[in-house]
Every structure is written in C-alpha cells, then in structure tokens.
Design brief:
The complex is a heterodimer of chains A (223) and B (771). Chain A is mainly α. Chain A has one domain: Tetratricopeptide repeat domain (Serine Threonine Protein Phosphatase 5, Tetratricopeptide repeat). Chain A has helices spanning 4-15, 19-22, 33-47, 119-133, 137-150, 155-167, 171-183, 189-205, 209-222. In chain A, helix 4 packs antiparallel against helix 5, helix 5 (137-150) runs antiparallel to helix 6 and helix 6 packs antiparallel against helix 7 (171-183). With 771 residues, chain B is α+β, with helices and mostly antiparallel strands. Helices cover 39% and strands 18% of the residues of chain B. In chain B, the strands form eleven sheets. In chain B, strands 11-1-15-25-26 form a five-stranded mixed beta sheet. Chain B has a five-stranded mixed beta sheet with strand order 3-4-5-8-9, covered by helices on one side. Chain B has a five-stranded antiparallel beta sheet with strand order 17-16-30-29-28, sandwiched between helices. The longest helix of chain B has 38 residues, at 15-52. Classes of the chains: A mainly alpha (223), B alpha+beta (771). At the A-B interface, helix 4, helix 5 and helix 7 of A face strand 7, strand 9, strand 10 and strand 27 of B. Chain A: Pfam families: TPR_19.
Chain lengths: 223, 771
C-alpha cells in the first residue's frame, strides 16, 4: 500500500522518458505501450524504496522453487553457457527455473521466453533504470556493473551497460560492451539486432558513418 | 597573615621604602594579572580554534568487496559463516537486532547492519539465507517474501595512515551503546555532569587516596582535563602544564556543552597500539578488539573498554587477559555498587569471557600486498594528504575468502614440498582475479603474506619461460588460412645465428625431438623446438606485438630467445596478459578499486569497468581449446589429481632456465590465478612450473571451487570431425574420429563416411541403438 505512491510516481516518470532509453530489455521495444507501462509498474513495485536491488520481489509460487541467474535459452541454441541440460551445469538448483518471477503483462510475441530475467539481475537492472531516469548515470553504471559481476555473461546487462555508457558520451566503450554482448547472444536474433543497432549509434557518435551503416546492415541480418 | 605582619614591621623601620616596595608589588601583580589574562585569552583562542574546526584528520578506510547474497550464488555456508565472524556478528538463537546471526543447519538468519555504497544505501534488514551444496538456494526477508538480492556490509581491511599513525573511527554520541557513558563517568569522573572542568572534590579525594596508600593511585583529573591533556598538550608532567590544563579545561567547559566534550573524549582517548598504528577512540577500539560496531557492544564489552582507559598497554586484553579480566570485573562491581546496573546484570556480565577477537582471523589479518596495490592506484589520483586525512572510504574488489584460500594453497604446497633441497629459499607470489570483470580479488606478495615488504606480485620481474607460448600460438591461429589446431609442426632441432654472431640452439625439456606433431600439441606439451620454429615463421616482432595486444607493454629486444620466454614480467603483468586470453580476447585493465566515497558517504570517484576487444573471438576460442588440452593431456595434466575431471580449466606452465622460475597461469570461467615461485637471488630451484607453481594453483582451485570453463562458441568457429591420427577430415561414425574446432572455412574437407553409404553415420547410430 505504502509502495503504491512511489510506484505510481515512477510510472509517471518512466512514462515521460524517451522510449529508446527506457526499455531495459531491448527486445520489447515493439510491444504495446499500455502493457509496457503495466510492466514498469510491476518493476517499480518490485524494487521501489531507497535500497536499490534489495527489495522483495513477488513471491514465487512454489515455496521450494529456485530462481535462475540467467535466462534459460531456448532449447535449440547450440552452445549454452549455464543451461540446465548442459553436462557441466554446476548445481541441480538451476534445473527448476521459476518464470513466475518475471514481470507480468508481457504481450505474447514481446519478450521471448528465453529473454526473461529474474531475481538479482532484474532487480539491479531495474534499479539502474531508475537511477538513469533520475539523471544519475554514474549510479546507473555502478548498479549495472554490480549486475555484471553477478551475471557476467548476460548480454542484456552488457546491452544496458553499453546504453548507459553511450548516454554518458563514451561511445568507444559503448561499442565495446555491445560487442561483448554479441559474443554471448548466440541464438538470440532480436537481442543481436538491438546490440548491432547500439553499435551503429556508437559509431555514428564517433563520426564513423560507414561503420554505422555496416552495423545497421548487421542489425537487419540478425532479425 | 604573614605578609601583613612583615609589612607592618617593615613599615615601622622603612616607611618610604615599604611604600615603594608595595607599589612595585601592586604593579607587578597587575602586570601578572594582565599577563595571566592575556594568557587566558590566548588559551581561550587555542581551545576554541581547535575544538570548533575539524577536530581530527581521519585516514582513508579500505573495504573489501561486500558479499552479495542471491539465489543461485556460489557460496558455501561455512565461507559465509567465516565472513559473518569476521564482520563481528554475534551468534545467538534469536536474531534481536543488527549484527546478530542465528544458525540452524543449512539456514542462517541474520540482521544486516546496512551500509552506504556508491550506488546508494543498503538498509539494515533481517534476512534468511538457505544453503545447499555450495550454493545459496533461498533468500527471504524474515517477515516473509523472497529477496532478489541483498548485500552485506563490507569488511574493513585497512587504512592509509599518515606519519603520526593515529587511527580512529569517528562516532557520534547517539551511536554509543547503553552504559558506555554511565560506566565512563562512574569510573573516570563521577562529577562530570556537575563540575566546571576541574573538580576540587576529586582532587581532594585523589590526595586522600594517594596519601593513605602512600603512592600515586588516583589522579584527580576530570574527563575534561584528560581531554585537554590529550587533545592540546604534550604528556610532560610539570606543575605549569597541570595549571595550563586546568585553565583550558575551565575554558572548554565555558564554551561547550557537556555532550560535546564527552563526544570529543570518546573519539580522542587512546586505547591501544597496533604495531605502528595508534588506536584512538571507542569507535575504532570496538572494531579493533571485538570486530563490532560500537553501538552493538554489550555491558561486559563496555566495561572492558572503559577499564582500559586507565592503562591501554597495561590492560591490553590480548596480551594480559587475566589482569584485564580482573579489571573488567572490578568495574562491573563498581557499576553495581553505584546502582548503574543491577547486581544480577553485573554478575551475568562477569560470567562472560573477554570475547576479544583473535589475531590472524579473517577480520584481524593484514593484507599488505593488496593494500599496496590499492595505494599505488590511489596515489595516481589523490594527494597523500587526501588519503591520510579526509576519511575517504575506498571500496575494493578484494575477496578475503579467496585471499585466505590462496594463502592456504601456498602454505599447504610448501608443506608438501618440504624436505626437497633448496625449497626453503624459494619465495612466492600469487595474483587472483576475475577474468570476466578484470577485478583483482587476492594478492600474495611473499611467502609470509602478513609481512609488508618486497611485493613480488607487483615488483618481481622475472623471465616468464613458456608462459609466452599462448601468444605465439594465438598469433598463428589468427591466420586460419595458414594455421589450424591440427596443422603439422616439425619438432626438430634448430639453430640460428644471431646478428651478434651467437648461435641460438633451443632444446626441449626432455632434450628429445618429437618429430611431426599437431600444432596444438606444441603448446599442450610445451615443446620448445616446434614452438621456436613456429615463432620464427611468424616473426619475433609479430609475437612481441601479440604480447603487447594481450595487454603487456614491454620493450623486449626482438631476439629469438624471447620466443621461449627470456623476457621478464611481473606476476601482475602475466595476469593482465592471461586476462585477455581468458576473457574472449577482450582486454581489461586490472582493477583493485571500485569506487571512492567521502567520509560523509557522498560519491567521489568511480573506477569503471572498461574493455577493449583486441582479438578475433574465434582465434581466442582455439587458443583456449589448446590451453585446455595443456591441462587434459599436456604439461598441466597433474592438475586433475586435485581437481574433478568434469571441471574444464585452461592454463600454461612456465619454467625458466635452470628452474630459476616456476610459473603457472591458468583460469576457469570465473577465476584466473597466476603463481610464481622462485628465489629472490635468482638462484636455481628444485621446481618446474608443473612441480611447483601448478601445485599451488591446483590446490587453490580445489579450495575455491571454480566454475567450469564454458566459452560460447563464436559464430566463425565450427566443429569438424577429424581423424585423430591423420588430421584429415573424417566422419562422426568413423573409428578414431575426434571433434575439433576450426575457424569456419579452415576445417579439413569432410571425410567419407565410414559406412560406405552416404547415410552411414546415421546407420551406425541406429545400429548402436539396436545393439
């Protein structure tokens, strides 16, 4: 109840932001705006309060359920990093992903099943989103690096890091983070396209028109 | 009386002279009064000036990484408990407040203390952490509801002390635990809240006590006088100093509230000596002796600290536990006597042990090598005075759990090597970093890790031997049209004449030639002949350029001997080089510091994560494959005597001429460790890279339980079936067929399937099913 007010405020604040910046998960940019607001409201409710990333998220349905650190990739992708069925999967605890933790209200066709984030990474990306919306780009960077330490191979974290670096005017690092993200984005064409798009923006910022065009070409190929 | 009588008698005889004398006396005393008044004015200025400004300079504080808690995190329960102990959490059955933890089997409930971080505050909260295996499997708020992530407060690992070496943690009066003020007043200055700076009553009492005892037992100093003495004056014991002290005490009381004076006293008082460092104030003393924030101290701990005020050296609880215990109990009795606490409370408190934290535990260890790294990085950005006076908070990536495991691995290995001739003189250095973030997590600069001194991890530049070889193979694999992992190399003798006329004639370690081998075998088995040939084909400058691209600036001459590691690097530089290999060809400057906050918790500076892609991911993928084969079938294979077979790791041994340097550098997915063993005088050791440094590395990895190396396969890499003996294209169903990665387009053309028909592979597969 107490959280409703900040939640609503944040919805208003986030709603006022440029659409490009506010998608913490790039691939949902095509989704309808009403449901996006709904999703953001959910994000906010999950993590509002002053303590970034330390708030309770919605209780998972099964008491014993376990949250996965990184998104489960679709079964067909060739080489998974922490996939449940890989022989090197470190612990049985990764076997039971709980997707009920991901934000509700996502239209079908928006966020693919393999793009869903959860637990700590989602909380920290959301915190970074709020910091960025409040103009605290250093704080946002710092939260994203915290997320990167927790899930170093999550391309969506690298995407957001690149995005914030670009907002900070560091196009060189923005491109580098996007490229690192690409190396972990195999089998995720929508994300690849977004990363290439970010590379194109970075190159434009650096005055490299030809490179930007090439990156845009790659973005189209990915999709 | 006496004076008036003599005056009168003098008056009688020399009236004129007497008036003259009297006049002079009057003038003199007037002058004296003026001088005294002037002195008082001066003292008043001194008192006010120092007390109203910034009262203390505080050294920068250096913190370890905060432990993150989240479901799925790799963290053993016992490691977590070790961290909690280091942070001074009291183990109780009920979690009553911050700094308390309750352990029940695999569940730990605790109340965190909260902390101000760069990104914002982490609030104090009650959390329940559930462990299974070596992972966190549950994280809930005590009131119900799961938590996404929580952060512990970071462990304080050191400070940057100025020349006078005074250290303190400033506290405010509202942060003190119950009974501290009452106990201090009861023991040191019973009339504190009523006197005016000096207390004639206490002086009289002191004189009485000392007179009856026949010796100095008690001082009559008030807390205010003690503060004045410590804060403004030297420690000489003269009457004039005593008078100055009294005057200043009165002046201080005139200008400031009792609370201000008390707070200053609590921060100023000297409570112990830690080597070069003087422990001042109750805030630091609480951390130093109990690892706990002052606010959490219990009655018995408060009594102990207050008891130490009388003589911090004499009543040092670590050095003189018995007499300190007696002093503490005496004070508890006094408190009961004066009605500050009940007799029951005092009795209960007296039952408790001293409870002082042991030296050498996680919290009470010094990490001179890592602090040295932090200082060097900070000095590039800050003035010395900023670091020693402004109370900056330095947040680092130091992981005390990993550090202790690294130190233990060194100690264990040396114990096992003990008895080998010459091992006694062998020194050591070790660097552990996270290859995915470029953060330094642990640093060992000496075989005696507690001693500050020559920091070999940063300063010992030694020939790297075969550690250079991955750079040669990487340079080759960057040319897929020329080289693949299964290209043939000649491992045959070679000799070349240098420009200076000297003949360079490398040898294999076993002094044999191995004929024709696969390229990857040259690296896996660390053959010098084939590697030298490969390097010469590529060109020495190309190889040196590759080393530079990997992240190490050197000015090595382009001699052929550089191909076998005649050039020197520090363990830290090697870590930088291997970091690029471990992180998919992305170079990251190694960092030890994350951010800096001001004393008030305001963000000051960040040391951001930066990466730069230096190599094609495909070429790096192939080098990593070869480096994994070092461990599976090459010079590093003894590692699997200590590590489980399912764990993929990659690395390289290095041994310089005459075994003067024993190196190993290697990584898992989440840990990169570099170990160097050798003598400071550069003499020969009985250790090779495999028998020395690798053993330390393996022991460390076994304890650290790393994540298996699983690099994502880059787009331009493909797997192909090849015949293990001929290296030619084969088929999944064929005998001796093995799968190898190639840069797309460089793989051998697919072999004929072995079933004779095109669908043979599938038929074999089906047959396998039927069988």
């Amino acid at each position: 109840m107490k959280l409703t007010v900040p939640a609503l405020l944040c919805v208003v604040a986030l709603g006022g932001c440029a659409t490009v910046q506010r998608g913490s998960i790039p691939v949902v940019e095509a989704s309808g705006s009403a449901s996006e607001l709904e999703r953001d409201a959910d994000y906010t409710r999950a993590t509002s309060g002053q303590s970034y990333g330390a708030q309770p998220v919605t209780e998972p349905s099964a008491g014993d359920a376990v949250v996965v650190m990184v998104p489960q990739q679709s079964a067909g992708s060739p080489l998974q990093v922490w996939s449940a069925d890989s022989p090197q999967a470190p612990q049985p605890s990764y076997d039971t992903p709980v997707i009920s933790q991901s934000p509700s209200g996502i239209p079908s066709g928006g966020l693919a099943a393999d793009e869903q984030l959860d637990g700590p990474v989602l909380a920290l990306l959301t915190a970074a989103q709020q910091q960025q919306a409040g103009g605290d780009l250093n704080g946002a960077s710092s939260s994203l690096e915290r997320a990167q330490r927790i899930a170093p191979r999550e391309p969506q974290v690298l995407y957001r890091l690149a995005e914030v670096r670009l907002a900070q005017g560091d196009a060189v690092q923005a491109e580098q983070f996007a490229r690192r993200g690409l190396s972990y984005a195999a089998g995720r064409p929508a994300l690849q396209a977004s990363l290439w798009d970010l590379i194109a923006q970075s190159r434009e910022r650096m005055g490299d028109a030809a490179g930007a065009a090439q990156a845009r070409q790659n973005a189209r190929v990915s999709l | 009386m006496t004076r008036s009588r003599t005056s009168r008698s003098r008056k009688k005889r020399h009236p004129g002279r007497l008036r003259w004398l009297f006049g002079w006396a009057l003038k003199l005393s007037l002058v004296g009064l003026v001088v005294l008044a002037g002195f008082a004015v001066y003292l008043d200025a001194v008192v006010q000036e120092k007390f109203s400004g910034k009262r203390w300079t505080v050294p920068a504080k250096v913190y370890a990484r905060p432990l993150e808690l989240f479901v799925g995190q790799k963290l053993a329960r016992d490691d977590f408990l070790r961290e909690l102990d280091a942070l001074g959490y009291r183990r109780e059955s009920n979690v009553a407040g911050p700094g308390v933890a309750a352990v029940a089997g695999n569940t730990v409930e605790l109340h965190t203390r909260g902390f101000q971080f760069y990104e914002g505050p982490e609030r104090a909260q009650r959390v329940r952490v559930r462990f299974s295996g070596n992972h966190v499997v549950g994280l809930d708020q005590a009131g119900g509801g799961s938590l996404a992530v929580a952060r512990m407060e970071p462990l304080l690992i050191g400070g940057l002390y100025p020349a006078h070496n005074e250290d303190r943690i400033l506290i405010k009066l509202d942060q003190v635990p119950p009974y501290l003020v009452e106990t201090l007043v009861a023991v040191e200055d019973r009339d504190f809240f009523s006197h005016l700076g000096v207390s004639p009553k206490s002086i009289a009492r002191a004189i009485w006590v000392n007179a009856t005892a026949g010796q100095m037992r008690q001082g009559g100093s008030t807390l205010t006088q003690q503060l004045v003495k410590n804060f403004y004056l030297t420690s000489e014991r003269t009457l004039s100093r005593k008078l100055t002290e009294a005057m200043m005490a009165v002046l201080l009381e005139l200008h400031y509230e009792k609370e201000d004076i008390l707070e200053a006293y609590l921060n100023e008082v000297f409570l112990g000596q830690d080597g070069q460092r003087a422990v001042h104030g109750f805030g630091l003393a609480s951390q130093y002796f109990f690892n706990q924030p002052l606010a959490e101290l219990q009655l018995d701990q408060v009594a102990l600290l207050v008891g130490m005020v009388k003589g911090p050296t004499y009543y040092n609880p670590r050095r003189h536990p018995e007499r300190t215990l007696a002093r503490r109990n005496l004070i508890l009795d006094l408190l009961a006597e004066q009605g500050v606490v009940s007799v029951e409370q005092a009795t209960a408190a007296k039952q408790k042990p001293l409870g002082v934290s042991a030296r050498g535990t996680l919290a009470n260890s010094s990490y001179p090598a890592f602090l040295d790294l932090v200082k060097r990085q900070l000095r590039q950005d800050y003035q010395e005075s900023d670091l020693t006076e402004e109370g900056l908070r330095i947040f680092t990536s130091f992981d005390p759990i990993i550090q202790l495991k690294a130190e233990a691995a060194l100690a264990d290995t040396f114990k096992r090597l003990d008895g080998r001739k010459g091992v006694d003189e062998v020194q050591a250095a070790m660097v552990v970093s996270n290859p995915e973030t470029g953060e330094v997590q642990a640093l060992v600069g000496s075989r005696q890790p507690r001693f500050a001194g020559f920091n070999r991890a940063l300063d010992a530049q030694r020939p790297i031997g075969s550690l250079i070889k991955p750079a040669i193979y990487l340079a080759a694999l960057e040319r897929p049209s020329q080289y693949t992992l299964t290209s043939w190399l000649e491992d045959e003798p070679i000799s070349i004449k240098g420009r200076d006329g000297q003949v360079w004639q490398p040898q294999n370690y076993d002094r044999k030639a191995h004929g024709t081998i696969y390229l990857y075998q040259g690296l896996a088995s660390s053959y010098n002949l084939s590697t030298a040939r490969l390097g010469l084909d590529l060109g020495v400058p190309t190889v040196l350029k590759t080393v530079e691209r990997l992240g190490v600036e050197q000015s090595w001459p382009a001699y052929p001997s550089m191909l076998l590691g005649a050039g020197g690097m520090t363990p830290m530089q090697v870590t930088g080089m291997y970091q690029t290999l471990a992180n998919g060809g992305f170079n990251t400057p190694l960092r030890g510091i994350r951010s800096v906050l001001t004393a008030e918790g305001e963000p000051l500076k960040r040391y951001p994560f930066q990466i730069q892609q230096r190599f094609d991911p495909g070429a790096i993928y192939l080098v990593q494959e070869a480096m994994q084969r070092v461990m599976r079938e090459g010079t590093g294979r003894s590692v699997y005597g200590q590590l489980p077979a399912r764990l993929n790791v990659a690395g390289k041994t290095g041994t310089s001429n005459d075994s003067r340097d024993s190196w190993f550098a290697g990584f898992s997915q989440d840990l990169l460790a570099v170990v160097w063993l050798g003598r400071d005088d550069n003499g020969p050791t009985p250790l090779t890279g495999a028998s020395g440094a690798l053993q330390v590395w393996a022991s460390f990895m076994r304890q650290a339980d790393p994540m298996s190396l699983e690099a994502p396969m880059p787009d331009n890499v493909t797997l192909a079936w090849v015949d293990a003996y001929t290296g030619e294209g084969s088929d999944a169903g064929c005998p001796n067929a093995v799968q190898m990665p190639y840069i797309r387009g460089s793989q051998p053309s697919p072999g004929v399937s072995c079933g004779g028909q095109e669908a043979g592979g599938v038929m074999d597969w089906v047959r396998g099913w039927l069988d």
